Amino acid sequence: MAACEKVLAPRRFSGFSAEGLAFVSADGLASEPQAAETAASVLPSHKLESGPQAGSKYGHDPTDPPPACLPNCVFDSDVDTIDLSEPFSNANTSVWGHISKNGTNQNSSPPTMNDGSMFADDSSLYLYGGGISVAYPAVGAPTVLPPDGVWQYDLGSGQWSMAAISGVPVNRSIIGMSAQSSSSSVAYYLGGVKEPASDPYFWTLPGATPYMDQGLLSFEEGSLTFQNYSTAGINEYGTAAAGFMALIESIGTYGVLIAFGGISNVPGKPMNVTDEYGLSLQWNLSSVSVYDIGVQVWYQQTTTGDIPRWRYSGCSVIVSAPDQSSHSIYVFGGWGNSFGESDGNVYVLSIPSFQWIRVNEESNQRSRHHCSLIGSNTMLVVGGITPSYNNPRPDDPSGCDTTSMFAQGLGMFSLNNHSWSTTYDPVGAAAPYQIHPNISAIIGGNATGGASLTTPPGGFSQKALGVLLTGNPNVETLESSAGSTPRATTTPPKGKKVLSTGSIAGIVGSCVFGLLASMALGLMLYFRRRQNSERFQAAEMSGQIARFELSDGKDKVFELCATASGEKPLPATPDEKGPRELEGHEWVHEVVGEASPPGYESAT
């Protein structure tokens, strides 16, 4: 597509769902001054953002060619919309609406930040985390890192403001994994990476390099409160980024988080551009971590079945059986170690059996994209790029939307039929979710539930995990257990109830850095709430949030900067500066302070 060639490296959206309207926040770079408006309104998934400030070039490989638009690259910042109450084709450019966002004025509207997360309740959007791009100059791009904070967009007035955050202070990270409750206004942000272009303190320090961060944040939108929790039990290092995370609200007192994939590294250890796909950092999909929000406990559980190759920078959504006997986390795309390992199959991780099931083998390869659950049974894929050659992080603009399946960076996957489509039907998307025979053939039951396989082969890693997920006190367990020791618990704070006229159906975080430059994208998908308010819905946001979903976004680390000879690591290592997660403490770099468990109230 010719228009696609005017910009480079499509990025990733993040967002949430509620009443009938989709907002797409696309901050970026148009190749030509006259193309800026066209890129903003027609191709919001195919834009870059870049700043002229020298320093860390997170996500930029020095061997990559510069953007073709130089020296005339033009910064662009906007919010685009899609009406989800009407059917559309991904080939129809008129699907996009437009809302102005003055991203160059940091005093009146949010600056362009990459690889953060977007959260939402019934009245507002919230932008958390991210960093600015410094790889290449662009007219109008931010040149100074803004202060830490959270920007709030009022859906009623259409006005931006800096949110009055309480609780632990906000300190930005990037490419963490995020998820949001569908029944209350509580969101979660896991792990991530600290780097100079995200942290005002390190912005002016020469030679600083990225490093991974520990911690799980909760954000209660009703009270604008951040809280901070331990991730010591999530894996060997207690860190995670660029992977996948899902929230299942119907399990436990306040729900559970399921996290897997992406990378993990020693907290505080300097990283370079090749570390992101190094074998030593890979969090293999043969193991997942489960977090009981109510009692603040991490468990580790092995998986079986058709286990996907390791990946990062993919996306996922979650749906539950009507009878809650099983929960299906749909995983699509992402980068592997090479082009050949970056498959485009769709997989399901079934909970509580922890069985991987391959449900579609069309191999529509994609990475740096975002997924969001639309209605009851449709996975909307937005943004991204098609893998090419053997470079796990190519910036080939010809791969952005050359296939009809992802025209304009949009693609739809039916969770009922397990098939791809280039068109969206709001009536079909609202039909009840049914378990596909591909899944029930493995876990038992039928289209409405009744799963008979509710225990992993060999048993759960710990009895407490099995009881949590199944309610059965006599579950089978492995001889050797793996899980964290419960910390002291307190009464979880209450999240703001959602309005009775509609509920947030999902939020996915983690927006994605580019290799040559970066942009922040946010997809806010609105749809009507079903009459059955008792049925919980949940969606994964980046991680590696980006991941503002937000992720996966959250969800990749093609943003790690090269460490040239003589470069210095960030001085804020665990032994040198700032609170860290040490024995008996719950400190994390993203925030300063301790907290009680996050929680929420179900809608009535």
UniProtKB/TrEMBL annotation:
SUPFAM superfamilies: Kelch motif. Residues 574-585 have a biased composition (Basic and acidic residues). The keyword Repeat applies. The keyword Transmembrane applies. The chain crosses the membrane at residues 504-527. Residues 34-65, 564-585 are annotated as: Disordered. Keywords: Kelch repeat, Membrane, Repeat, Transmembrane, Transmembrane helix. Coiled coil: none annotated. InterPro entries: Kelch-typ_b-propeller (IPR015915). PANTHER family: KELCH DOMAIN-CONTAINING PROTEIN, KELCH REPEAT PROTEIN (AFU_ORTHOLOGUE AFUA_4G14350). This is Kelch repeat-containing protein. It comes from Alectoria fallacina. The lineage of its organism: Eukaryota, Fungi, Dikarya, Ascomycota, Pezizomycotina.
